[in-house]
Design goal:
Blueprint: E1 2-5, E2 16-18, H1 32-36, E3 44-50, H2 58-71, E4 72-83, H3 85-93, H4 99-107, H5 125-135, E5 139-142, E6 156-162
Parallel strand pairs: 1-2, 1-3, 3-4
Antiparallel strand pairs: 4-6, 5-6
Helix pairs in contact: 3-4
Length: 163
Amino acid sequence: MKLNLGSGSNYLQGYVNVDPQTNKKADVRTEAYDYLKDLDTGSVEEILCEHLLEHIPPVDGFLLIKECFRVLKVKGVLIIESPDLDKLGRVYGTGKLHYEHFRQGIFGEKGGVSVGEGHVWSYKEDEMTAILRDVGFMECGASINPEEYRWKFELSFRLKAIK
């Protein structure tokens, strides 16, 4: 089984797309953690968390990552993509990033005006790598292929963690 948690407008064939928002297409309409807690241990081969973790408080994000680890099979893959606080600050500081894109990276689409679109936390790549290792992931590496990114390669991180 493959999961796309917090699928939003990124509905993927071949995945169970999980999202609580009623205005988005999803196979299962619930919070990611609530969906995972009912799954058997070691029952999932891949989990996508693309632009999900910045929308939930950091304690809940840590619990979600722990639950992802639990449900993944041995050698299962967790992919996390999120705006990178370090990259956003560095690029904005050079004057090469328009304020609107900086604001969007920090606060989310429309500054969080729409339900579920606001960001409540920001991560840095090294911080997320440490969290993944603390949870128990053995291998963890960043993607350097811009084509794999859902949102602005130069402002995000995309990590692949293997159980």
